[in-house]
Amino acid sequence: MIVDAHQHFWNLEKVAYPWLGPQHGVINRTFEAPELEPLLKGAGVDRTVIVQAMDSSEDTAYMLETTARHDWVAGVVGWVPLDRPREAREQLKEYARNPVFKGVRHLIHEEADPDWVVRPEVIEGLKVLASFGLTFDVVAVFPNHLKHVPTLAKLIPDLKMAIDHLAKPPIASKGWEPWASQLAEAASYPNVCAKVSGLNTAADPDNWTAGDLKPYIDFAKKHFTADRLMFGSDWPVANLAGNYQRVFEATREAVADYGEEERQAIFGRTAIRFYRLAL
């Protein structure tokens, strides 16, 4: 069972996405399930997890509507106002009734305050999230957010977290520190996983190869092990530096020297366990 643990949909006529504009070129349009479905079949991907693309209830409702029409969508990572814990609790009571709703994400990299995620009220909201047994996807865009993951892991040890896109390592500049030290520290907490996703858009957009991604994936495997890593395409954002097939094939190439059990973990088993996907 191959799972894409990180992809998006957005419909610009149904939901507002203020962050998205002409500066985003080829992804500044609507992307919906019928466009992705043949790409999944071409790559041999069986199931996906849709991840929120806007901090709004409208975006979450749109994703849940999509799952009702496409059974290959196995999970939804939506949004609730974590900085308003009481309101978040009421929304989670409703969402938790839907078995496809698996967790929450907030576009923390869009917040003016780089320390937003460790504000007291947000910590309280994350504790509420943990009480529902739901997960938290961390948009830990390096260097502002990865350093906060250990803080969250210590304060809320029962909150399962996934670091999106390996926190966007400095691949284009072939940099390492302090990204490497911060990722290794985050990996020391057993409630933290990471996604092998979005790496092509952290590399040279025109000339990246699997070889550019591999050292960063290898480093993540060393510290997380394959059982806490999961593949994600980050489609359609991936189209900024390639396409679905290229990202999928490059990731497969980068881990080709791993053991069969490790590859199965990264391409499905970890996501199934982390998101409790009913397959």
From TrEMBL:
<protein>
    <submittedName>
        <fullName>Amidohydrolase family protein</fullName>
    </submittedName>
</protein>
<comment type="similarity">
    <text>Belongs to the metallo-dependent hydrolases superfamily.</text>
</comment>
<keyword id="KW-0378">Hydrolase</keyword>
<dbReference type="InterPro" id="IPR052350">
    <property type="entry name" value="Metallo-dep_Lactonases"/>
</dbReference>
<dbReference type="GO" id="GO:0016787">
    <property type="term" value="F:hydrolase activity"/>
</dbReference>
<feature type="domain" description="Amidohydrolase-related">
    <location>
        <begin position="3"/>
        <end position="277"/>
    </location>
</feature>
<dbReference type="Pfam" id="PF04909">
    <property type="entry name" value="Amidohydro_2"/>
</dbReference>
<dbReference type="InterPro" id="IPR006680">
    <property type="entry name" value="Amidohydro-rel"/>
</dbReference>
<dbReference type="InterPro" id="IPR032466">
    <property type="entry name" value="Metal_Hydrolase"/>
</dbReference>
